[in-house]
Amino acid sequence: MWTLKRGYLLVAILLLAGCSLPGLSANSDAKNNVTVFAAASLTDPFRDLALQFEADNPGVDVVFNFAGSQQLAQQLAQGAAVDLFASANEAQMRAVIDTGRVTEGKQRVFGGNKLVVVMPAENPAGLSTLQDLAKPDVKLVLAAKNVPVGDYSLAFLEKANSSPQFAVGYEEAVLSNVVSYEENVKAVLSKVVLGEADAGIVYSSDISPDVAGQVARISIPDSLNTLAAYPIAPVSDAPNLALAQKFLEFVLSPAGQAVLAGHGFIPVEEMD
Amino acid sequence: MVTASNSTATAAAAVRVERRWRRAREDALLVLLSVPLVLFLTLPLLALVVRAAPVDFLSNLFDVEVAQAIWLSMATTTTTLLLTLVLGAPVAYLLARRRFRGHAALDTLIDLPIVLPPLVAGIALLLAFGRRGLLGQQLSILGVDIAFTQVAVVMAQLFVAAPFFVKAATAGFANVDREIEYAAALDGASSFQVFRMITVPLSGAALLAGAIMTWARALGEFGATIIFAGNFPGRTQTMPLAIYLGFELNLNRALTLSAILLLTSFLVLFVVKVLLRQRLQAWSQ
Question: Which of A18, A118, A137, B244 is deepest in the core (most CB within 10 A)?
């Protein structure tokens, strides 16, 4: 019998531990935390922005969740407690506005991005022009069409298809070279850096200084490219709305814009 | 005399009643203690099935991409299971029956894929078998490219799922009564006959449990697959990948896909368990 008593004791201890451990409670009530949901492509610049913001505002902690915009939008729709949402496209911001988590009109464009073709540095498939992507047996990796960059990649192929500079059937030939539709843009870049893919399409901002030496690139002219506008907005029921607003303004400030530009993003004032 | 036997009878009855009471109390306690975990495990699964509307369910079941994902999952997990049985049984037998230098190291090595996050497993597979990998470079020269193929899907599943069978089979082989094997050998059975007719049937329950664990783990495999095999509908997009990408595109679709995965797994596991348990009972008698 007393082994059972010990069992009860163990259960009681576990329950008590569960109640008292601060780390286990889902609702952190720290007043100086600002939780930001940001698109995977924003990982590096937003980390830098957070460092500056935290230095300017002692005691403040910026907490990030980086993932594909569409995944973040789903998490927001399911009620995640968030202060700020930065999306890689209008569509996912729109999806969140439709759920009521962001108030229409509160969203602001804070930067832009465009597509670029990347290859492993030694360029195993010997690609030098956009037309080469249609050569047989090129292993091409794109982002899935529900990821903003994947959507833009398909739009580029469609535009190229109707351009006289590209052969008839270009789009179809390139699509038949696709070996994988990756879940996010960082995965596309990784497959190229690892040399598994002959080419991939990513944002120009994805080529961070530490991978720049490991990839070769082919730029896509503006007429075929999609200028991706990145919107940011405070979440309407943000636990820490004041701080969220402050971080948003910092992103849009000259200092914030300079950080973004340093990571290959197009500052707002250079967009259209 | 009469009173004495009466009193022994009543005493025995009292003991029986006491025993029954005790049993009833234990049962009640056992059920009570089991309820929290069973509820915790059932509720989310139930929520999935309830949320997936029947109309969506049927229309999705006949969607080409969903059908492709189901077919691909079934084909690859079956291949993985067969490979695991063929390649895993010798390792399990070695671990169960021989003592050698490095035994503990080998045993621990088999544990590693279970502990490793599947994403890491995927990266490790790429570093070994990818185009620039340790072995992949040589394979690539021979014109064999594994990444982004169904072979890669099976390899990812084999890497993360095979250890489950090896662990269970090792325990099963170790528990077989060696006297029966010696007796069969004395009667003139060859080593393979002893293995097939004595060892395997007697460790059948453990082998079955291990095989089911391996199959189930392979069916749910996501992280290593998406890294090593990529995601291409009809080629490398298994059910879990279709669910993950569906989740981002359309929650309802992801829900119905999950419900389909749950129901198929439940049916397969249930049927296999019931059928094979009967076979096993017939065998051991």
Answer: A118
ipTM: 0.74
Look at residues B51, B69, B93 and tell me which one is the last residue of a structural domain: B51
Query: Which residues of chain B lie closer than 8 angstroms to A147, CB-CB?
Result: 248
Residue B9 belongs to domain spanning: 1-51
Q: Write down the pLDDT at residue A66.
A: 92
Nearest to B83 by CA among B147, B144, B155, B136: B155
- B68 part of contact set with chain A, CB < 8 Å: no
Question: Chain A within 8 Å of B22 (Cβ-Cβ)?
Answer: no
Q: A134, A167 in Cβ contact below 8 A? A: yes
**What is the model's pLDDT at position A184?**
85
Dmax over Cα atoms in chain A, in whole Å? 86
Cα distances from B28 to residues A4, B15, B24, B31, B34, in angstroms, run 14, 20, 6, 5, 10
- B280/B228 same-domain check: yes
pLDDT for position A68: 85
The reply to whether B153 and B197 lie within a common domain is yes
The pLDDT, as a whole number, for residue B78 is 95
- Chain B residue with CA closest to A73: the answer is B248
List, as one string, the DSSP characters of B5-36: HHHHHHHHHHHHHHHHHHHHHHHHHHHHHHHH
Same domain, B7 and B82: no
- Tell me if B114 sits within 8 A of B162, measured CB to CB: no
Residue B59 banded pLDDT, cuts 50, 70, 90: confident
Three-state DSSP class for residue B43: helix
Q: Which domains does chain A have, with CATH numbers?
A: 30-112+229-270 (3.40.190.10), 115-219 (3.40.190.10)
CATH of the domain at B89: 1.10.3720.10
Average pLDDT over chain B reads: 87
Rounded CA-CA distance A192/A201 in Å is: 10
Strands A108-113 and A228-234 come out as: antiparallel
pLDDT at B66: 82
Which chain A residues have a beta carbon less than 8 Å from that of B245? 144, 146, 181, 183
Question: Tokens in use for A188?
Answer: 């596309």
Angle subtended by helix axes B103-115 and B150-174, to nearest 10: 130
Mean pLDDT of A121-125: 93
* Same domain for B184 and B210: yes
Does A236 touch chain B if contact means CB atoms closer than 8 Å?
Answer: no
pLDDT at site A7: 54
Instruction: Write out the two tokens for B14.
Output: 């009292």
pLDDT bracket for residue B278 (50, 70, 90): confident
Query: A212 CB near a chain B CB, below 8 Å?
Result: no
